[in-house]
Amino acid sequence: MKKKSPFLKILGSIILLGIGVFIGKSFFGQNNVETVPIPSTIKYRNIGLKNDTIEVASNRAFTGKIIEVRKGSSIQDAVKEANPGDLIRVYPGTYSENVYIDKDDISLQGVVIKGEWPTLDGKKEINDAFLYSGNGILIENFKIINYKGNGIMGQAGNNFIIRNNWIIDTGVYGIFPQYGKNGLVEHNVLSKIADAAIYIGMCDNVDVRHNEVFDNVAGIEIENSRHCLVENNYAHNNTGGLLAFVTPGLPIKTTFDVILRNNFVINNNHENFGAPGSTVSGIPSGTGILIMAADDVIVENNIITGNNNTGITIVDLATGAPKANDPNSEGNPDRVVILDNIMFNNGNDPTGEIKAIILTQLDTKGPDIFAYGGGTGSTIRDKNKFRTFGLDGYGVAQITDTEHIVTMMTPSPVPPRSVSKEELGELTYYGVCAGCHAFGTRLIGPPTEILQAIHHDNPQGIVDYITAPKNLREDYPEMPPQNYLSEEAKMAVAEYILSLKH
């Protein structure tokens, strides 16, 4: 184990004083506005260029209709009325409903007046607040509380923006774009989520910036996703702060090209209250950053302190998910790069396997960086600055920073997904089912092969169940109904589930 200079502890303490300013400006700077401007369209930046923007066709003046929703009215009714390009403005009040957006280019904008938010309250009776399958969706300025499933879930929609939302106790996930491409998740505050507060699942080209996540099992999770930037977030008092990993059994088999940069990762020591048997239930309390089987992950310029197990943990699937069974998932974390970070006061109370391994070194304090298992090509800027374990095979990093990479979003909007009849079942499975069901691995719901055994040669049985589910097993949570799906989509996904093989 190697110690770093005390100078960095002093420097880190000084920098931590800036957190209050960071949080105040980032999350609560606009509570007193009485009017809200029409959302500006996205300026898509070139990847790798700092100042150049590209004007694209979508950057046109707003020409849609503005639909206002006030207390006592229904947001879903406004969605039904809206056409692509319209803006739905929701004024302060309490709305207890599920809002499903299956149209493209719809903007939903809460209007916050003198600290009063439009609030979606699920009353622990409704599963999801917002579900969207459309492309070009904007959801901003909402308070979302007391749902059983998800706060905001995307189902295969591209070009999404989710920002300035306050999400508390919404069940399994807070913000969960799944199988989408080209998205922005920023300036949200999330707490009391039983799985991941922000879960980027099977997505490409997503920026996650300026969010605060606390009192969750997982703070921010990049799972089976590629080309993601996680920057300027504040993750504190979660079980695990930031995660980049591969979950076996999902249709997308890899996580790679992820930058974790300029984040505060502090005191992530919350007890793990994830669903027993789920992937996140295995995250040890006290985990700052976890990298499991993800490739080409860069960890740069973060403040990582007070995490009682480790500051950064890097493991393969055999170590992190030993019960997983997916021969098509390559289980090693390759080409991880650790650049300059401020790390101190981590590992004060290591647990489980890390504690046992550290004891073999005649030590009781966990490391800032812990690496165990397979993987090749990983490097670190200066391993002598930190307390480390398992980095003997790491080389010296050949880069100093990633300043030239401003965003992972694409230079222009990606095309909306075009789905043929033959592809409908696969896309519905990717976009709706795979967040909770994987082949050979327990997530939130039963593994896919159990569904096959129950409904063998009976796709109608799956259709009936997803339309009106009943909780038949005490060891799994109740499944939310998927009755918003068309009959064609339900039958297509049922047939696809029964056809799946490893």
From TrEMBL:
Domain of life: Bacteria
Annotated InterPro entries: Beta_helix, Cyt_c-like_dom, Cyt_c-like_dom_sf, Para_beta_helix_rpt-2, PbH1, Pectin_lyas_fold, Pectin_lyase_fold/virulence, SCF-Subunits/Alg-Epimerases
Gene Ontology terms for molecular function: electron transfer activity; heme binding; metal ion binding
Pathway the protein takes part in: Protein modification; protein ubiquitination
Ranges that cross the membrane: 7-28
The keyword Transmembrane is annotated on this UniProt entry: yes
Keywords: Heme, Iron, Membrane, Metal-binding, Repeat, Transmembrane, Transmembrane helix, Ubl conjugation pathway
Domain Cytochrome c stretches: 420-501
Protein name: Parallel beta-helix repeat-containing protein
